[in-house]
Every structure is written in structure tokens, then in C-alpha cells.
């Protein structure tokens, strides 16, 4: 059933009635979770397996759920612990989740699946750092150049990625992670790995000058830290996302403009160079 989206749809079927009319699904939350001391909603026991233990379906209306158990710990007093999560999804959503992608690529080392930004492609990392676009027929396209990413955007325009600031921010961060680069994104200035030991007066002066050049206001918690986590602001129909990255021994401020068509325009400014970094 994982050979194509059409085959998966045929296997799962479509809902046969509105949610509120189904006596089973109307009693089950869209998302619920708990530990071994808590049982899922009453209707859970009526859901049936449809080919995979974690893939459940309502026998009345054919809606599908993912039921995932996580086992961990080995406490000498309480034994192994576990948690469960039950989520109701549309069939097409299940197809693009990590659960679906790992079954579509059983012989590959799937290490990450991105948020579903594209209608007909999942962004998949295989191994440690190689990213691919996986289409609905399970064909892989390597995203090893900026040109390859641009072709994907043109061929399969993403969902409304500039509609709200949080979506635009996540989209910019994800595509920045895919684009081939040796740059390292920073969440805080303090994450820069400066040389160990006592700094010389020149090194301390260089570091303090770099802090000041960011223009960032020190945080109160943790005290004095500089917050470099992604931020976003609207500019007409575009969204400008600000990132901070380390490039070699330089600190770079990166402004990424997310356009309504999904394309990105990047503007890098070197804020400080020759930093005493490891």
C-alpha cells in the first residue's frame, strides 16, 4: 500500500460521514496522549488495524489515526515506562509524515522528515546531511544545490509560506538547513565556540566589539545573553526572516526574504570577522 499515494488512498478509503455524526470519532479527540497509567479515549478500542499496528481506522466512518507507543527507561523500582500518542489525520497527511515516509523508503536511512511545506513532495534527510525531495510516487530528487531547490519550488509551489510570520520563519530555517553550506546557524551569541582559556586583551576587545555590533539588547534570562533565534517581520506581501550564522571565524547577519511564490532572497552582512573561535 506504500508504493504510491493513490494506492495508499485506495487502501485507507475516505470518510463516509461528517465527524460529528460518527459515534466513535466524535468521542475521540483529534490529538491525545498519556502514560501507561492513562487509557486512550473510550472509542479507541473500537479502532481497527489496517495493515500496520500503528495505523488505525474507524470501522464506522473510515477516518484514520496514528497510535504510537514509546517505551523508555529501566528503573529498578518502576520498570520500563511508556507513553502513547493518538492522532487523527487525513490520509494524505499520514502519507507525508515521518511514519509514512519511513515505510515508503524501507531500505533507506531516513533520519528526518521536514514539515510538509510542499503539496506533492516531502523533504527528507537520508543519513547525516543529504536532503532529498520525495514525490508521491516515491521518486527521490537530490537537493544538493540552490538550483535544485529553486526547481522544486517552481515545479511544486509550496503552501502559503508567507501568509503568517511563524510559517515563513520555519520555512526559511528549513530551506537554509537544506541548502549546501558550511555556515552554522546560531540561536545565541554565547553559542559561538570561542578559544578556551583566558582571553588576551585583544581577544576580549574583539569579542565585545562583535557583541556591540549585533545591535541586540542583552537578555535578562539568561542574564546578558544575546538572543539570535530566528525572527520575522512583514514587508508588504513578503516576510523578512532574520538569522544569525557563523561562517568560519566570522559572524554573519542573514536576512532571508520569503516571497509569496516560495522563493527566497538572501542578504548576508558580515558583522564581525577574525573572531577568536575554535
Mind explaining what this structure looks like?
The chain has six helices and 14 strands. The protein is elongated, with a radius of gyration of 23 Å. Strands 1-5-4-3-2 form a five-stranded antiparallel β-sheet. Helix content is 21%, strand content 32%. Strand 6 (110-113) and strand 7 form a beta hairpin. The protein is of the alpha+beta class. The chain has three domains: 5-96, no CATH class; 105-155; 183-272, no CATH class. It starts with a helix and ends in a 6-residue tail after the last strand.
Topology at a glance:
Elements: H1 5-12, E1 31-35, E2 48-49, E3 55-57, E4 64-75, E5 79-89, H2 91-96, H3 98-104, E6 110-113, E7 121-126, E8 130-135, E9 140-142, H4 146-155, H5 165-178, E10 184-186, H6 201-214, E11 231-235, E12 238-247, E13 250-258, E14 264-272
Antiparallel strand pairs: 1-5, 2-3, 3-4, 4-5, 6-7, 7-8, 8-9, 10-12, 11-12, 12-13, 13-14
Amino acid at each position: 500500500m506504500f508504493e504510491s499515494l493513490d494506492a495508499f488512498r485506495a487502501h485507507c478509503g475516505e470518510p463516509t460521514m461528517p465527524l460529528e455524526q460518527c459515534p466513535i470519532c466524535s468521542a475521540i479527540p483529534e490529538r491525545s496522549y498519556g502514560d501507561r497509567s492513562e487509557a486512550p479515549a473510550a472509542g479507541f478500542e473500537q479502532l481497527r488495524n489496517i495493515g500496520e499496528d500503528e495505523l488505525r481506522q474507524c470501522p464506522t466512518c473510515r477516518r484514520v489515526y496514528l497510535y504510537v507507543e514509546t517505551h523508555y527507561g529501566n528503573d529498578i523500582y518502576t520498570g520500563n515506562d511508556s507513553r502513547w500518542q493518538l492522532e487523527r489525520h487525513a490520509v494524505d497527511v499520514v502519507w507525508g509524515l515521518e511514519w509514512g515516509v519511513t515505510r515508503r523508503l524501507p531500505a533507506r536511512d531516513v533520519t528526518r522528515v521536514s514539515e510538509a511545506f510542499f503539496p506533492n513532495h516531502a523533504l527528507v534527510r537520508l543519513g547525516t546531511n543529504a536532503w532529498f525531495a520525495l514525490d508521491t510516487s516515491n521518486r527521490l530528487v537530490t537537493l544538493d544545490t540552490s538550483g535544485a531547490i529553486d526547481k522544486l519550488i517552481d515545479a511544486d509551489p509550496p503552501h502559503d509560506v508567507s501568509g503568517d510570520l511563524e510559517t515563513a520563519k520555519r520555512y526559511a530555517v528549513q530551506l537554509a538547513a537544506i541548502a549546501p553550506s558550511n555556515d552554522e546557524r546560531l540561536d545565541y551569541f554565547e553559542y559561538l565556540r570561542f578559544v578556551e582559556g583566558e582571553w588576551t586583551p585583544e581577544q576580549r576587545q574583539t569579542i565585545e566589539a562583535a557583541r556591540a555590533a549585533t545591535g541586540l539588547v542583552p537578555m535578562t534570562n539568561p542574564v546578558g545573553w544575546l538572543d539570535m533565534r530566528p525572527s520575522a517581520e512583514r514587508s508588504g506581501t513578503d516576510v523578512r526572516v532574520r538569522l544569525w550564522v557563523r561562517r568560519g571565524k566570522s559572524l554573519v547577519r542573514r536576512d532571508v526574504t520569503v516571497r509569496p511564490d516560495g522563493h527566497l532572497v538572501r542578504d548576508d552582512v558580515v558583522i564581525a570577522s577574525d573572531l577568536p573561535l575554535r
